[in-house]
Design goal:
The protein folds into two domains: about 270 residues, Aminopeptidase (3-Layer(aba) Sandwich); about 110 residues, 2-Layer Sandwich (Alpha-Beta Plaits). The two termini are about 25 Å apart. About 50% of the residues are buried. The strands form four sheets. It has an eight-stranded mixed beta sheet with strand order 1-2-4-3-5-16-6-15, with helices on both faces. Strands 10-12-8-13 form a four-stranded antiparallel beta sheet, covered by helices on one side. It is about 35% helix and about 25% strand. By secondary structure, it is of the alpha/beta class. A hairpin with a 6-residue loop joins strand 1 and strand 2. The longest helix has 22 residues.
């Protein structure tokens, strides 16, 4: 690997930042300490700091030795943690009960800070880079809020880039794909109202549990029988709430779940099918239902030209043999998709380590930890991306 020597020299410093952030996780729109930490580091590096977008967002602006081209690109890292009780016992484990950096956003933030430190020292580029530190990626759409509040109006860029660590992929491996790379993220809630009764006399009531069970089963036909086989739909029921005791048929039941799709027409059709199935089954049982359906994140779509750029840059850092272009899309979701709707760009996956080694534990797991060994790789990718995309010789 051809990581940048200067970044390798302060690897321990990056690791220290990362572990400090891991020990102090903060969740959506509450990343105040994290935001302060990032802003203080950027200011220490001599980078112009802007705060306030999406409550706790931070944007750092850095010009190269020259800015004759007037060009600019954005680099984005997410900062938030998850509502998970950490089960690790190392020294930098979470100090906040019920909150944990279980997805590696602490590492993403530290890597981008590492690149910012290096670029502020060298400024070996022509143009401007915007370091975008985004809150609330997990579920709450901080990326959408930053865009809606004028991120790219206030800080214009021609393209924007993101990355995520990938457990299961070896250190030094990079994957990406042009076009749809991660699925849209929707949620639904079906509230069923029946008629309560004694459990020994079910004929006197309208059972929302039986009704809901039929709905859960029927919803699976949307992917298996209502969707074209070459298309992709994941519909998962993740919650079923009903009743309080053993001998009472409850009055109500609630079903909740998530839908993942790539195409907007498929997304719309799934929403229609959920409503149709739930309404018909409830009507057949004499129950009533209401449906709440929310489109949380759109599909993440990488642009062709910027994916080519990202692939070429990654090859400079890890070697062309370690870059996989055309990787399979993921049904997971990312609110970086909102930034890619506003600007062209590319989102890559950076190997975090294989199972059984550092960084191999799956994300959103109480035993997860970001692999500090990849920090130099990620920071070198960011820095090389800037120097390659905004060359000082034009």
């Amino acid at each position: 690997m051809a990581v940048i020597n200067r970044i390798a020299e302060f690897h321990e410093e990056i690791k220290g930042w990362r572990r400090d952030l891991h020990a102090h996780p903060e969740t959506a729109f509450e990343e105040q300490r994290t935001s302060d930490f990032v802003a203080e580091k950027l200011a220490e590096f001599g980078i112009e700091v802007h705060r306030g977008l999406a409550t706790t967002g931070v944007v750092g602006l850095l010009d190269g030795r020259t800015n004759a081209s007037g060009r600019a690109i954005g680099l984005r890292a997410d900062m938030d943690a998850l509502h998970i009780q950490e089960l690790n016992d190392f020294d930098h484990r979470s100090r906040h009960d019920g909150k944990m950096h279980a997805c590696g956003h602490d590492g993403h933030t530290a890597m981008l800070l590492g690149a910012a430190k290096y670029l502020s020292e060298t400024r070996n580029f022509d143009g401007r880079v915007a370091f975008i530190f985004q809150p609330a990626e997990e579920n709450e759409g901080g990326g959408r809020v930053m865009v809606e509040e004028g991120l790219f109006d206030k800080f214009p860029v021609e393209a924007v880039y993101g990355l995520h660590n990938m457990p299961g992929e070896p250190v030094g491996k990079v994957a990406m794909r042009a076009g749809p790379a991660m699925a849209a993220f929707d949620i639904f809630e079906i509230a069923i109202t029946g008629k309560g009764a004694h459990a020994a006399m079910p004929h006197q009531g309208i059972d929302p549990v039986i009704t809901g069970a039929q709905i859960v089963t029927a919803l699976q036909t949307i992917a298996s029988r209502r969707t074209e086989p070459i298309d992709s739909v994941v519909l998962s029921v993740t919650q079923f709430h009903a009743g309080d005791t053993w001998n009472v048929i409850p009055e109500t039941a609630v079903i909740r779940g998530t839908v993942r799709t790539f195409r907007k027409d498929t997304q719309a059709k799934v929403e229609e099918d959920i409503a149709r199935i739930a309404e018909a089954i409830c009507a057949s049982q004499g129950a009533r239902m209401t449906l709440r359906y929310e489109r949380r994140y759109p599909a993440l779509v990488n642009s062709e030209a910027e994916t080519d750029i990202a692939a070429a840059v990654a090859a400079k850092v890890v070697g062309a043999e370690n870059v996989r272009v055309g990787a399979e899309p993921l049904m997971g979701s990312e609110d970086f998709a909102y930034m890619l709707e506003a600007r062209p760009g590319c989102y890559i996956w950076l190997g975090n380590g294989t199972e059984g080694g550092p960084g191999g534990c799956a994300v959103h797991n109480p035993h997860y930890d970001f692999n500090d060994d990849i920090a130099v790789v990620g920071a070198s990718y960011w820095a090389t991306l800037v120097e390659s995309t905004l060359p000082k010789d034009g």
